[in-house]
UniProtKB/TrEMBL annotation:
GO cellular component terms listed in the entry, alphabetical order: membrane
Keywords: Glycoprotein, Glycosyltransferase, Membrane, Transferase
Membrane topology: Single-pass type II membrane protein
Name of the protein described by the UniProt record: Core-2/I-branching beta-1,6-N-acetylglucosaminyltransferase family protein
Amino acid sequence: MNLTKTNLHPSLFLPPTTPLLKPQIKNQTTANATARPPSQLPLDEEDDVSLLRLASRVDPSPKPIKKLAFMFLTTSPLPFAPLWELFFARAPKNLYNIYVHADPSVNYTTKGLGFGFSGVFKGRVIPSKPTRRHTPTLIAAARRLLAHALLHDQSNSMFALLSPSCIPLHSFSYTYRTFIKSRRSFIEILKDEPGAYERWAARGEEAMLPEVEYEEFRIGSSFGC
């Protein structure tokens, strides 16, 4: 199926989505309640709890049209942004959304780091917090991206978590068909990889215990769909 506007029935096209970070959700008490915009939540230890609580109330029922949510988790400008621009150039705008979690401690407009987020990434940065490799901050950032995607547009049906080094290998049409038709999640899980023990014990030989025994530890990419 070629996912272009000329081949899709007009009834499948929805009106423009609400502005990023101003979602409409249903809760248990009011059918058409307006969710508090995540951008107005205080950036402290409690805001993620509030954000995830709101996201957990999103209506999971199927929508007339399914969208892909591309979630970029980065601590630097996106070096392959030109490739992504080409990837999205011919994509129907009603079939995808873009979200960026950018470490706020980094100055993305500093000379040598590019000029911030422009093109398809302009205005797509969600309220973010500092992140560091090999720490739970990456898990929190991924959950933050997922929550914002759920709240911003309930038509988001599949969620791709991407790093700055990720590049598109196929066209948008191929990617859309593959993910939307799939009933599986795509997560890399590798067993018996070299250096597995060193990574398991990176924060101390007992830091992962008792929750994760070494025999149950697996290595894989943090990014998937």
